[in-house]
Amino acid sequence: MVEAAVSYQGVTFRYHEAGAAALQDFTATVPKGRLTAVIGHTGSGKSTLMQLTDGLLTPTAGQLEVLGQVITPRTKNKALHQLHRQVGFVFQFPEHQLFAETVLADVMFGPLNLGQTPAQAKQAAHQALVQLGVGEALWQRSPFELSGGQQRRVAIAGVLAMRPQLLILDEPTAGVDPDGQRELLALVERLKGQGLTILLITHQMEQVAQLADTVLVLAHGQLQFSGQPRALFAQPEFLTTQQLALPAAVAFAKQLQTAGISQFNQLPLTLDELAHALARQLKGDHHEQ
Amino acid sequence: MNNKVLFGMYLPGNSLMHRLDPRLKLVGCFWFVILVFFARTWWTNLLLIGALGLVIWLSQVKFSKYWAGIRPLMWIILFTAVIQALFSSGGQVYWHWGWLAVTSAGVAQAGFLVLRFFLIITSSTVVTVTTTPLQLADALEALMKPLKYLRVPVSQLAMMVSIALRFVPTIMDEVGLIMNAQRARGMDFSSGSLFTRAKRLVPVMIPLFVAAFKRAEELAVAMEARGYDPNQARTKFRQLHWQRHDTWGTVVWGLLTVALVALRFVK
Amino acid sequence: MIEVSNLTFQYPHQDQPVLQGLSLTIPTGQWLAVVGKNGSGKSTLARLIAGLLPTPAQTIRVNDLPVDEAHLAALHHQIGFVFQNPDNQFVGATVEADVAFGLENRQVPAAAMEPRIEQALAQVGMTAYRHHQPEQLSGGQKQRVAIAGALALQPQILILDEATSMLDPQGRQTVLQRLQQIHQAQALTIISITHDPVEVAMADQVAVLDQGQILRLATPAVVLNDQALVQQVGLVQPFSMQLRDRLQHYGVPVPKEYLTKGALEQWLKRQLATRA
After folding, report:
1. Where is the ABC transporter domain positioned along the sequence (chain A) (predicted)?
2. How close B51 gets to chain C, by Cα (Å)?
3. Can you give the residue range of the structural domain that contains A127?
4. What is the ipTM of this complex?
5. Domain-located, residue A235
6. Phi-psi category of A271—alpha, beta or left, where left has phi over 0 and alpha has psi -120 to 50?
7. How does pLDDT run across A21-32, given as a tens digit for each residue?
8. B 152-171 residues with CB < 8 A to C
């Protein structure tokens, strides 16, 4: 059993006292050092859940424990502030939050807020920018002069420079061209390899299949599924009722199965798994795995 | 997310007040305010309260909603009333301290003052509660049409207003998002001196302005691509239609005026 | 028909032209996908065709109409334009008001607007959302409204400037499906600027732009099958091509030609049948 980085215990959240619950009696855990994908449509409550996890909201009822810190409806602002320091939150289209005069100053903003000295903050910023592959030539430029893809990377560096123990990524590849997407996904994979706990909100089922250790599916403010991606994609009826797509590889494998062309003992999740399984079959080795 | 606050105080509904022509509501409200200043006796004020009660009843919106609109202004009203009561003279003196005195005339004047505030605020709330901001903009445009002859760019102004209204919720969302993002980056908006707090708005205001300029630019191009030319005449999809209930509304307000004048002059 | 001949364009604040002597003919009714890296000039080209930038004289003709200041109004009549950001092109307070915006500009009488709005909304499957406000819609729905707004003006050409790039996969899929239906139903010329392999595959022709020039003009099958080209211009190959390459990597001799998902499926069927 892996240690939990976050555990939600019957968390309910309402934006208005009388309004509908954006999150209803939500119970789940996020394993430490793993990547957990969070999927759900607009209005499913996933953004609310992420804001609670970063202490940007406090629950209306129930409690959650994030990195050992318990948050209840009565938790004070100061304690929440402590949480912002440990959790990194990369919002959707994070480049829209850039503001400083130079790239470097923008990335230093977070570390300085943590109370680091300018020298420390600068060092943290340097490291993060290098990690994101933002060349030194750009550091003294205005962030607004950069291309969209570069801005995205600077914005992510601004969060990583705070060296969070838990990283929330909300659709990090949205609106980025294929090259940029590839680079960002490689970064996520690297961070995962370094043992960082990551919560990844995504609509791309390929990303779930490829990167996630566990998946949380939300709908109407309630948890619908919690488990491994393979278990999720093995339930086509469930996915249909949730209006979720299959990853392309899974969909193609299913198609081959229903057409009676091929059978898989275990459904392949990624393109590589599918190609591997098919290659074995084509070479006459029917006893795959 | 279900926390979208509707701009203004509009409450969706289909009551007679909702269906009334916004031009009539706007002019009617304005006229009512004039009548409020015209009414100086208890009887005339009672008549106005009756008229307001009728309109509130017709709007099918609970009075508590109106009350919620008045409540935040209550302290200002009461404060003004107290000042009025203390500084006016005449009639019987109930209490005095130096040149401050509470007299019967002062109390009466203060009472009228509170009543006037109440009538004016509530009547305009009836309009905003039953009319969408866009309908109001349409009504304003229609009413300002004569100004076109004075070379006032009425339709351009109306376009500006309706686009501003359209983007209020979008920009509100954006403010919330940017603030959250900067809080997540360790920014603390809730402590420190006024100066440090003001300084902290920089990381919010700059992204907001950048987004606003970008939006304005993109919107302008998109509007051009769809054939918008500020110097060209446009037709209107949302037409304001004067209907029979609007005529009746006008008649009722006319009768109210006549009754008020009668009550005031014919003793 | 759109004719672009020897078009060179430079933004005032830049030291290099984005487009350099570009020529291109787009026949009526064609769906042309324009691909290329960011900064290759594809968006500029689209805007020049639509007269949204000062077009150099005598370089572009749209249905025999020269694109210049004097013909702008007539040009906007013929061309519908859908932009990237769903929020920044939604002008109306409601869905129907937004679709009406273009009609109002064109001084269509109010009575004549109704059927055109209804039809345009039906074409994009947004009839049920007529009275919704933009905040109540998803990105994909807003883009469908934007397409309806263009269609209501009955254009001959529809230009989509990365119109699906900010959408989630499902939003994108619905938009593309609707476009396909519309394209099949009427002889609408479509120019779509995109990075999405699925969108590219839907086109009749693909223009590959690189450094302000057309590097290649060919069918999607030819372009997408050219892996070096695909990588050079920052695209990804469609799923079927990726799978084919991966199978080859595992030593399966899959034919080198372009394969759709269906064709690949059939090929696998034949191969596995002979094995069994």
Report:
1. 6-245
2. 33
3. 4-229
4. 0.89
5. no
6. alpha
7. 899 999 999 999
8. 162-163, 165-166, 169-170
